[in-house]
Design a protein that fits this description.
With 268 residues, the protein is mostly helical. Helix content is 57%, strand content 3%. A three-stranded antiparallel β-sheet has the order 1-2-3. The chain is globular, with a radius of gyration of 22 Å.
């Protein structure tokens, strides 16, 4: 695109700078934003291109806190052993952990939000008015998902076998702020009815409830994994900092390496 005067121009609604000023989201960065908005509020604003309300900010930042760290997950281990291998590359260790955000860890946030969004889209704007109505919608969705030989995202957790402690807390926060919307209500209904179809009871996991909360905030479901990664970046930085103070990366490496056993490859 050209501006007709001095060559190329590239339109943006985000950040621009001159010799003496930085503008972000149409605001003066130093006068209007620094010290005036939280980082979480800004992250929301950058994507939605609107400033979140205090209630939206509380729910959004609760999601970020819920996803920041969850112990020695594969993403944390990847960051730590990468830092062991390349301590001169902090960015490499951080990136290694973020690259592990997929369908089993972190990516469930987007998978669940997208799944709920698609089920709701099929209702064509006619939403249930009672728990019984939501249960009927959820039951149909779970049955169709099972028939298609797919998993219902947001169900189950490798550690929290009965209840993921994050789930009821985030639901309560959304309720307090008047933001317990259709995605969350559908997710809760799935938690109530899935046993009828799957034959076993699974917990609604924290990544899934975060996806429901983010979708209810009106954020693009195609970008929900990005918010999970944003949250986990903070946790990974903490993991790397602890690796510097109290390293375990070498122990992880040596434990696997010293217990490696050669086996003949399986025949074709």
């Amino acid at each position: 695109m050209t501006d007709g005067t001095d060559g190329l121009s590239f339109p943006t609604s985000l950040g621009t700078s001159t010799a003496d000023q930085i503008k972000l989201l149409g605001q003066d960065l130093t006068a209007d934003l620094m010290g005036q908005v939280s980082f979480g509020e800004l992250a929301f604003w950058l994507v939605a291109l609107r400033r979140p309300t205090p209630s939206e900010t509380r729910v959004f930042e609760a999601v970020l806190v819920a996803l920041a760290d969850h112990g020695f997950t594969p993403t944390a281990i990847a960051a730590r052993v990468t830092y062991l291998s390349a301590p001169d590359s902090l960015q490499g260790a951080l990136a290694a952990g973020l690259l592990g955000g997929g369908s089993r860890f972190l990516g469930v946030t987007e998978d669940c939000g997208r799944y709920l969004h698609e089920v709701l889209a099929g209702l064509q704007g006619t939403l249930p008015s009672s728990d019984e109505g939501w249960d009927a919608v959820a039951l149909k969705a779970v049955r169709e998902t099972k028939a298609g030989q797919h998993l219902v995202p947001g169900l189950g957790h490798p550690v929290h076998k009965v209840t993921d402690p994050r789930t009821p807390v985030l639901i309560a926060i959304a309720e307090q702020e008047g933001l317990r919307g259709p995605h969350m209500r559908l997710f809760e209904a799935i938690g109530r009815v899935h046993e009828q179809v799957l034959g076993r009871r699974l917990p609604l996991n924290g990544a899934g409830v975060c996806g429901a909360a983010l979708a209810d905030l009106g954020l693009p479901v195609e970008l929900l994994r990005g918010f999970a990664l944003l949250a986990r970046a903070a946790g990974l930085l903490g993991q790397i900092a602890e690796e510097r103070r109290r390293p375990i990366g070498m122990d992880v490496y040596m434990t696997v390496d010293r217990n490696a056993v050669y086996v003949d490859p399986d025949p074709d």
